[in-house]
Amino acid sequence: MIKFHNTLTNEIEPFTPLKAGEVSLYTCGPTVYHYAHIGNFRTFVFEDLLRRFLESCGLKVKHVMNITDVDDKTIAGARREQKTLREYTSFYTQAFLDDMRALNILPPVLQPHATNEIPAMIRLIEDLAAKGIAYRAEDGSVYYRVSKFEEYGKLSKKKLDGNIAGARVDNDEYEKEEGADFVLWKAAKEGEPSWDSPWGRGRPGWHIECSAMCMRHLGETVDIHAGGEDLVFPHHENEIAQSEAVTGKPFARYWLHAKHLLVNGEKMSKSKGNFFTLRDLFEKGYDAMVIRYALMSVHYRQQLNFTFESLKEAREVIEKLDNCYFQCLSRLQIGCRGTDGQLQLRQAVRDIGESLSEDLNIASALAILQKIVTEINAHLAQLSSASLRECIGFFEHMDRIFGLDVASVKEIPPDVLGVLAEYAEARKIRDFSKSDALRKEIGEKKWFVKDGRPGEPSTVKKMRRAWDIKK
Ligand code: AMP
Ligand code: ZN
Questions:
Q1: Are residues 365 and 417 in the same domain?
Q2: How far is the CA of 310 from the centre of ligand 1 (A)?
Q3: Is the minimum distance from the CB of 30 to ligand 1 under 6 angstroms?
Q4: Rounded-to-integer distance, Cα 169 and Cα 463, Å
Q5: Do 238 and 263 lie in a common domain?
Q6: How many domains does one find in the chain?
Q7: Hey, is 283 helix, strand or coil?
Q8: Do 126 and 169 have their domain in common?
């Protein structure tokens, strides 16, 4: 049975989708005003693990992630750089998509851009106005009257007591004004992008964007809505208020939130010098899958303290997985194999699935993975070709769940195998200058040679691809 922690009830609940066999998943996408940082990717990698796990359970996941390409921050950024909003945001949207691909995050089924969905937002505000919940203020903007929605605060557990009647907030992001009326439609300001609406030219507030896009693409009730913990209030609280006041139905059945990442125990900030984008880490020579592992390996509701030490540990694990996979592949292709195969791979797959069913218990799942890899390593020489194939299938299955891209190379090319055979021969007759030259030749083809222990074959491993993504 799959269980998730639901922020709405603050309990770990059994998960069943509304429609058998299908899960609708909405995750709040990036605000494309800068390169996404590793904190953002902590959340996006968690959401990717969530999706991959659901898919590994045989569920079809309809995943929608929006792109916030109009809000206070994108407008301020475009103005600062003297670009149009579209020029400015399309650059960072592309950068985000490149980063997602590098991190092996599955592309959502749909990725609506807020600026392409304005009519749906206007319709929703009209519906709120018809119910007497949206009102136009003297400044020409349209606000949500929070006191009209009795359940306001049910997600964030904030109380309306501190609310000063009629207090309004027109920033997209705010904290202190608990329960203040928030902006749905902002009246156009000089020099800002704006669209026509029944209330005059203006632009949507950030919160209405997600309500409108989520309901338009996934229906009035979505199975899972996810994001980072900072989104609980006001963003998700307001999304609930906007959507449920109109439909009278639950907007999302399960709310999942990832705890924020810290760097060396501190909040990331440019002034402290501990602010990293993915590109910063590529520049320092870290591999994308090492970064993915470091971001994924701490449970999503636990604080992930990102350190360079944690990247070192992640690198060791990735190397261990790579080494084991390529040992299996090499041995299978070289043709040296044993006759036995007493591995508990099926049991490991079941145990990993069970761990992840417990609110994505990643620590336990990864511990099982590491243990079985140690076991495969210990039995390599004895494995029959059928067992080696089974191991390769196991790694492929693990890739589908963890996305660590261990088993994407399906075959050692014949030319590499040819040079490897010559290499083994040269070593056998102790012609080390020849074997050194052959090792180099294999290296030029982007493969590593790993010498076997006495009586064991030398094998090869593919070098991981370097991402030429630049700042
Ligand atoms: P934004 O682009 O600011 O809208 O954020 C995109 C996603 O990243 C949201 O789900 C945020 O909650 C999440 N996020 C922002 N900062 C962090 C952080 N330090 N750790 C984890 N998630 C974060
Ligand atoms: Zn959102």
A1: no
A2: 20
A3: yes
A4: 53
A5: yes
A6: 3
A7: helix
A8: yes
Radius of gyration over every alpha carbon of the chain, rounded to an integer in angstroms: 26
Q: Which amino acid makes up residue 21?
A: G
Residue type present at position 297: S
For residue 256 and ligand 1, the question of a CB distance below 6 A is answered with: no
- Which of 258, 283, 308 finishes a domain? 283
**Predicted model pTM:** 0.96
Question: Residue 355: which CATH number?
Answer: 1.20.120
Is the Cβ atom of 31 under 6 angstroms away from ligand 1? yes
Is there a single domain that holds both residue 400 and residue 418? no
| Whether 161 and 235 share a structural domain | yes
Give yes or no for a contact between 222 and 26, defined as CB atoms under 8 angstroms apart.
yes
- For residue 92, which ligand has an atom nearest its CA? 1
Residue 40 CA to ligand 1 centre (angstroms):
4
Does residue 307 belong to any structural domain of this protein?
no
CA pair distance 442, 377, nearest whole angstrom: 24
Two tokens, residue 343:
């591995």
Residue 388's domain spans which residues? 320-408
Determine if ligand 1 sits within 6 Å of the CB of residue 260. Answer: yes
DSSP letter for each residue of 21-53: TEEEEEE---B-SS--BHHHHHHHHHHHHHHHH
Q: How far apart are CA 367 and CA 365, in angstroms?
A: 5
How many angstroms separate the CA atoms of 283 and 268, rounded? 18
Closest approach atom of ligand 1 to CA 68: 4
Residues 131 and 231 in one domain: yes
Evaluate whether residue 12 is within a structural domain: no
Residue-wise pLDDT for 352-386, tens only, equals: 999 999 999 999 999 999 999 999 999 999 999 99
Compute how many other C-beta atoms are within 10 angstroms of the C-beta atom of residue 126: 16
Secondary element (H or E) of residue 355: helix 345-357
* pLDDT at res. 446: 95
CA 171 to ligand 2 centroid distance, Å: 15
Residue 442 lies in a domain: yes
Distance CA 78, CA 84 (A): 6
pLDDT for 159 equals 74
Beta carbon of 258 within 6 Å of any ligand 1 atom = yes
Whichever domain contains 133, its CATH number is 3.40.50.620
CA of 212 to the centre of ligand 2 (A): 10
Ligand 1, atom 14: closest residue by C-alpha? 40
Tens digits of residue pLDDT in 109-134: 999 999 999 999 999 999 999 999 99
Q: Across residues 87-98, what is the average pLDDT?
A: 97
Is residue 422 over pLDDT 90? yes
Please report whether residue 304 resides in a domain.
no
